[in-house]
Amino acid sequence: MNPYEKLLLQNKAWSEEKIELDKDYFSRLAHQQKPKFLWIGCSDSRVPANEITGTDPGEVFVHRNIANMVVHTDLNLLSVLQYAVDVLKVEHIIVCGHYGCGGIEAAISKNDYGLINKWLRNIKEVYKMYQKEVDSIENHTEKVNKLVEFNVIEQCQDLIKTSIIQRAWKHRKGPEIHGWVYGLNNGLVTELVNIEPDLEKVNPIFRYNEDQL
Ligand code: CO
Questions:
Q1: Is the CB of residue 8 less than 8 Å from the CB of residue 1?
Q2: Which helix (H) or strand (E) holds 180?
Q3: In this structure, is the dihedral angle defined by the CA atoms of residues 132, 138, 142 and 144, taken in order, positive or negative?
């Protein structure tokens, strides 16, 4: 059998299994989604948001890209963010990086990857901010993993620089921002940072006038 056909067969089996356990499963989900969480994760196939958090369809609104980046010119990310924050009114945003991230490793190298250079450029900017700390590590794997952590912390900062988050913080005291890192070798998440809603936490140059929010 073509491996692609296997996916369709597995889908059928999965759907039947769900209905067997709970006959209203899909009719309930089809009615509406009210996820409490927005997940911003890496596209890496080994870091599936629902599976590693033990959540079901309907629980997590998901955006994934190479190296879980929050790029302020990325219309895709910004649209997902605005919808999640303003319409779904998620209570938590999780930025989840992972150790051994290929995107971070590529950014730390000097290789020319063509178009992807444009994306990796954003990670190189993070590296530049933490160059001293990262370069003080000899071991290549540890060096990559340290940049993975710093990158998650910076992407959380990039979230709170947006007017989307600042407006929500002013008007509904939410959402909370969480920076996580996932270990491919043990399946465990480590919490790196939690940012509770407080406009004072935004660097002043990125903080919009409160009466305009
Ligand atoms: Co990755």
A1: no
A2: strand 176-182
A3: positive
| pLDDT digit string, tens, across residues 40-50 | 999 999 999 99
Please check whether residue 36 is in contact with residue 89, taking contact to mean a CB–CB distance below 8 angstroms.
Answer: no
- Ligand 1 center–CA 187 separation, angstroms: 14
- pLDDT value for 1: 82
Match 């056909």 to its residue by tokens. 5
Residue with tokens 């001293």: 132
Per DSSP bridges, beta strands 37-42 and 60-65 are: parallel
| Torsion 119-115-49-28 (CA) sign | positive
Predicted local confidence at residue 106, as pLDDT: 98
Ligand 1 midpoint to CA 201 (Å): 28
Which distant-in-sequence residues (6+ apart) come within 8 Å of 88 by Cβ?
Answer: 33, 34, 35, 38, 61
Q: At 21, is the secondary structure helix, strand, or coil?
A: helix
Residue 105 CA to ligand 1 centre (angstroms): 9
Answer whether residue 32 shows pLDDT above 90.
no
The CATH T-level fold of domain 33-212 is Beta-carbonic Anhydrase; Chain A (3.40.1050)
- Residue ranges of the domains in the chain? 1-32, 33-212
Active-site annotation, residues: 42, 44, 46, 98, 101
Q: Ligand 1 center to residue 68 CA distance, Å?
A: 7
- Cα(73) to ligand 1 centroid in Å equals 20
Determine the 3-state secondary structure of 66 from DSSP. Answer: coil
Q: Among 9-13, 28-32, 62-66, name the one with the lowest average pLDDT.
A: 28-32
